[in-house]
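Final report, Chapter 2: Outcomes

The project's central promise was a pipeline that accepts a single protein chain and returns its three-dimensional structure in a standardized token representation, suitable for archiving and comparison. That pipeline is now operational. To close this chapter, we reproduce one record exactly as it appears in the project archive, with the input sequence first and the structure output second.
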Amino acid sequence: MHVSVLRRLAQEQTLLEKLGGLLRFVVFWLSIPGIFFLGLTVMHADQLNKRGAAYTVEETDRVAYVKECNQYGPFSHAGFGFHWECSVDYGAPGGKLKPFSQKTRSSIFTPADIGKTFAVKKIGKFLERYHEVDRFNWASLHSVFPFAIVALIATGQYWGLMRWAVGSLALGIKLNPHVGRKFVEKLMRQGRLEARPYNPGYYPEAAATVELNRQHGNSVKFGKIGITHYHSAKYRKKVHTWTLKWVQLEKVELTAFYRPDDKDGEYPIARVIDIYTIPREWASVEPGLKKHWGAMGIQGGARFEYFLSREKALAINTTVAAYTAINAKKQQGEVRP
């Protein structure tokens, strides 16, 4: 997508829209650590809820003497909040206790326990004071909820997320043209842009094929057969997804968006492709086309958010005119198929 097109679209933002984009950008990136620590907080609450009865000396044959405690937080392995970590001496009851290498965390002991001895059990590198009970609770279910939110946003809500993540409208459109489509539709609803037919003229000679590429592996090729769409995932070759033969097309037109005060059409903000099939309603149900049906104000056709440079629009206009003329002659029997 041409940089000048992105710049022109971005210039149509009001100051309030630019500030809104900046605010969304800040909120998005601050929400990531927020969601992360929220998940840790809920999981820590789950651990506290599963604490059962305290161990007895008969069960563990080990004790800990609490020497001192320090508070930590408000952000830690336990999420949001403040907790206590304590230094203890550890050993067999009645024997000599030695300083334990790891401080107890998650408020297993508190300052109220300083100077007291408690039965503990060593599990891995840490000391535990309480039995863990196997009970189901809502905290267990909610512990995965913040991470589920992130997964949902990153997949099903990807298109909306892009605008929040990058802040810049131009960069958002470059990474995902669907962002540009939504912005153009907003401007048209508000009367800030108008769609008008666009005729850039013709090259002296039509190219055999003209190909448009955009992000996410999508491309459209205008050629002898008609209009073909390809998609290629990472590390995979292009895969054909749909084709519209020239005989299936009523017409292919170029449309440009202008400011209402640009009466002479000298300064197009963006240029797009309009496709009308035979019958027209077919594009509204065909899987590869229906998402473009009625887009950006088009009536009875599919409008693609391939925002074109003038040079690319000129090449498409020339090639489409040439193949449309050839197809018309075929239909009249003047050219052999």
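Archive annotation: The chain has a mean pLDDT of 86.
This record, like all others produced under the grant, will remain available to the consortium after the project formally closes.
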